[in-house]
Amino acid sequence: MYESTLKRVFGYDTFRPGQHEIIHSVVEGQDVLAVMPTGAGKSLTFQLPSYIKNGGLTVIVSPLLSLIEDQMLHIRERGERGVARLTSMESAEEKQEIINHLKRYRFLYLSPEQLAVPYVTRALSNVKIQMLVIDEAHCISQWGHEFRPEYARLGELRKQIGSPQCMAVTATAPESVKQDIVEKLALFSPEQFVHSANRPEIRLMVERLEKEKKLERLKELVRDVPKPAVVYTATRREAEALAFELDDALFYHGGMSTEDRRLVQSQFLRNEVSVMVCTSAFGMGVNKDNVRSVIHFQIPATVEAYMQEIGRAGRDGEPAFAVLLYADGDERIQQFLIDGQYPKDEDIRLAYFERENGTSVSQLSRILRMNEEDPKFLLLKQMLSERSLQEALDWVKERRRDRYRQLGQMMDYALIRTCRRDYLLRYFSESAIDQEECCDQCGAIEFPETTRIVRKNVTEWRIRLTQIFSFE
Amino acid sequence: MVHLADGVLLLAIKRLNGERSERSLFHVLNGKRSATTLQDAFFYELEPVFGQFPQTTYAYESLLKGLEKRGWLNRKQFKLTEAGDMLASPEAVEDLFNRLGGERRDFNATTWKRLSLFVQTFMSKEHERTFYPVQADRPAEQWVKRLLQLDRDWKVLMQSFHHEIEIALEKIGDPYATAVVYRFTGAFETGLTYEQIASLLDVDAETARLYFLAGWNELLIALPEDAKLRGFTYGLSTERMTYSARESYELFLKGYSFQQVQSQRRLRTSTIEDHVVEMAMYLDIFPLDQFVPAEEIVTIERLRHPNSWALKPIFEEMGNVSYFQIRLVFARLKRGETFV
């Protein structure tokens, strides 16, 4: 019954599985919690109802600039002009201009920080909001793998803008996280839609080997697996080093300039380069549906992160491969990264002591030798305003223990000798599924023959220039 | 392995002559528009690298650590070691250094953003290809959008652009030409990252980036006055003087005295002084004697050590002139004037 809108606005003939039901609930005015794997068409489920109801502004809260940018690009691509964003990228004047003309827009994207800015909240409380969408809603939960303190206030902010209908969407959420989302956002008897986390087209493999052999094995794998392929690693430096070792590979990480990042993404999207070596910064918002293989050179920190990262493979529904390389002790990198995300006990004590003696926040960052933008420092600042010293120490300890526990669950995935798919599904409270071509524990997995793509040789600059300016 | 780009940074340190701090260079590399940094860039001939190495404190710290570890830099004095000096000396290093274009401030970078985004947008539309914009820069986006709304024969213009770029790059030659051309993105060809260009040219990525900066700078200089490409520099200036100093300058031109400028603009004395120093640094003609008595000018010139732009020794020796006055005289001396 929404097909005509689907065709008219989005140009598709049919819905993907699950979309129709969600849209129906949204149109009926229900609060909704939707757990859908990446690539299942989440954004359509909150965009389409706007065209059916035309009941005001749809406000979308999203944690990452790159995600916002990407979604806006897609919306504009189909000719919709009524979309705006409020993020740290806009100047004060641009923001004011948007705020002054909220009625012009159908979709407004913003970061949780921006929603909390008093004049933004106030302006939003004065316009008709059809729906508030919380993207990546798992960030609200301390049990989730990407807890973001900025998300904690969303429930209260929702009230302040007049408690509009609310939809929370996320790609992955175990039971505890789902409960947390419903509670924190004060969703009113929400309809819950949970897609299976299973990705039947992805074959799961783990290879255990010695540390010294990993690079050599990676080179073989990259040669043999079907491409395009993504190689995930833990650090920027390693991403650069691996890309250097591999054929036809580029690296991608958050430390690059915007222009270079754009160039790399564009080359990968257009199949001009076949292997991308990256940190977890890559992928968020990259819509490439023919990725055939995802290789992890380092174990990720959580099962959710792993699911999300391998979920970039096989979005077109064709067979794809996920390979995790694991050597004993690999988890130490993740432990190190986890430790680095929380302030040390002695720093917490020092901060509380200094604060009590009237040290200002900016002086504090110097005393602790932390950058004011350092997430660790931001966390510390938040703790200072909300918790006692003992509470802060306990909180950090508990958080760290949680993260270690989650890492342990990821290691179990690498170490088990039973069906890997089974393990993943159980993690998300789903029951086991029998399928052919499942994982390396259920049967041997073979890569199909790949044709080697031969890259064009370097052309002389005059020829390249002519190609760029060619109308042929 | 020593790269040309290492040499360029070493040369920057060398030019500071041990007279300025690590922090001073950091601000020059990041292009901070403060009086002190502008003066550092001017006096120590760091204009070409001004703003051409934007980086975080953290990256800068590890850069210096690296240079020290390799035995090229004495961090205590912020001077090069003998080994470092050798690497900063080749003509190729100096040549690349001087071509980087930092003295043109944002002019080069903004023009590049506009042109590269325009070429990508226009060619993609022409070939009906969806594209992922190579620039994420709002002003450039809006500029290109407005440009495309103009009623022009774009196809013919594109051919002129192509031709003009080719002729300019012929003059400049490789490796610069390759570095510039391969950064362009068309409808079917995505531009290369600096790493990729580096492997074409068999250098490191940072050197490839500098080749691009130098090549693009030279290209803009090589364009004839009536080049169609000059349209992409519309509204941009290569002026080094800051906007605020320019406002003071215009008041001076109207015949205002120092005090009148100051009360009109409601700025501190030291700020107006900084503006006057900018004028002394950047203007072809400057009435030095209005600010410093003639005999003091001569004394300052006589007292200056030929290789040094340090103010303090002169300030202490003379006692009757201010730092402001010494700066003004220095600025004119630096420009090649002489009063003796």
Automatic annotation (TrEMBL), chain B:
Domain Helicase Helix-turn-helix, first and last residues per copy: 244-329
Pfam families for this protein: HTH_40
Protein name: Helix-turn-helix domain-containing protein
Naturally occurring in which organism (per UniProt): Exiguobacterium aestuarii
